[in-house]
Amino acid sequence: MSKSVLKTASEIESMRKAGSVAARVLREASQLISPGVTTQDIDARVGEIIRGKGAVSAFYRYRDFPGQCCISVNDGVIHGIGGRRRLQLGDLVKLDVGVRFEGMVGDVAMTVACGGCTPAAQKLMDVTIKALYDGVSFARAGNTVTTVGRAVQKRVESNGFGVVREFCGHGVGRSVHEDPQVPNYDDGRRGGIRLKPGMTIAIEPMVTAGKPAVKILDDGWTVVTQDRQFAAHFEHTVLVTDGDPEILTRDDLPDLY
Question: Could you give the CA distance from residue 128 to residue 107 in angstroms, rounded to a whole number?
Answer without folding.
Answer: 17
